[in-house]
Amino acid sequence: MRQHEINVPLCDKCALETGSIFKHLTAEEVEMINFEKDFRQYKRGDVLYQEGNRISGFYCIHSGIIKVFKTGFDGKEQIIRFAKEGEIIAYRSVLSNEAACTSAKVIEDCQVCFIPSEILISFIKSNPSYALELLKLACHELGEANSFITDIAQKTVRERLAEILLLLVNDFGLDEQNYLKISLTREELANIVGTATESVIRLLSEFKTDKLVELNGRKIKIINKKGLEKISNVLTRI
C-alpha cells in the first residue's frame, strides 16, 4: 500500500468534476470527509480488499481503473464491473455490515480516498437527498447484475463478447484512433464475458476477420460499432 500526504484532492472540487455522489452533500459534510478520509495511491496489480474480509470503510476513486470481481471454486475470476474516476466501491458491505462479497484489484494505476464506515452511515442518517442517491446507485448496480445474469443464461459467448466491447466503449470511450481507452488482457476479457480465455482469443480473431475490430496487442480498435450492436442484440441498452 502506498500512501502520500501531498496533492490530496478536495472532495467538493472532485465531486463537481466527476459527477460523484458526494455532490449531494452539504458544505459541512464535504469538509468532514476532507478531514477524515485517507488518500492512497496504488499500482497495477495491487489489491484494495479481498472477498470475505471485513473492511472498515469504502473507496472513492479519484483516478485510474479498478476491477471488482468474485472468485469461483476453481480460482477463476468473474469480473463484476470496472470502477473508474468519481465512482465508489465497497459501500454495500459497509451498509450491510457484512464481509466483502467481492475483491478489488487495480488494473490502471489509481488514486483513491478511503472513507471510514461511520462517515457514510452518518450521512445517510442526516442527509435524505444523499441517502436517496445512494439507494438509486445500489438499485442501478443491482439492475446491471440482473442483466448480466440474464445474458449468461440466454446469450451465446459471441453475443456477450460483442456486448462487453460496446459497454467498454460506453463506459471508457475511444481515443482519436478509435482504440478502447481501457486496456485489458485476454484473460480479463474472458473473466468479464464468463468464458475461457481461448474462446475470447478465437472470437476476437473472428471479429477481426469480419472487420469489426482491429487488434494491436492488448489494444482493441473498434471498426464497425453497428456490426457489434447487431451481434450483441442490445441496441436498447447501450
Q: What does this protein structure show overall?
A:
By secondary structure, this protein is an alpha+beta fold. The protein has two domains: 2-128, Jelly Rolls (Sandwich); 153-232, Winged helix-like DNA-binding domain superfamily/Winged helix DNA-binding domain (Arc Repressor Mutant, subunit A, Orthogonal Bundle), CATH 1.10.10. The chain is 45% helix and 24% strand. It is built from nine helices and nine strands. Strands 1, 2, 3, 4, 5, 6 and 7 form a seven-stranded antiparallel beta sheet that branches. Strands 8-9 form a two-stranded antiparallel ribbon. β4 (57-71) and β5 (77-83) form a beta hairpin. α6 packs across α7 (186-193) and α6 packs across α9 (225-232). The radius of gyration is 19 Å and the shape is globular. The model has no long low-confidence stretch (mean pLDDT 89).
Map the helices and strands.
Layout: E1 2-3, H1 11-18, H2 27-36, E2 38-42, E3 47-49, E4 57-71, E5 77-83, E6 88-89, H3 91-96, E7 103-116, H4 117-126, H5 128-154, H6 157-172, H7 186-193, H8 197-209, E8 213-216, E9 219-222, H9 225-232
Antiparallel strand pairs: 1-2, 2-7, 3-7, 4-5, 4-6, 4-7, 8-9
Helix pairs in contact: 4-5, 6-7, 6-9, 7-8
Summarize the model shown.
The protein has helices spanning 11-18, 27-36, 91-96, 117-126, 128-154, 157-172, 186-193, 197-209, 225-232; strands at residues 2-3, 38-42, 47-49, 57-71, 77-83, 88-89, 103-116, 213-216, 219-222. By secondary structure, it is α+β, with helices and mostly antiparallel strands. Strands 1, 2, 3, 4, 5, 6 and 7 form a 7-stranded antiparallel beta sheet that branches. It has a two-stranded antiparallel sheet with strand order 8-9.
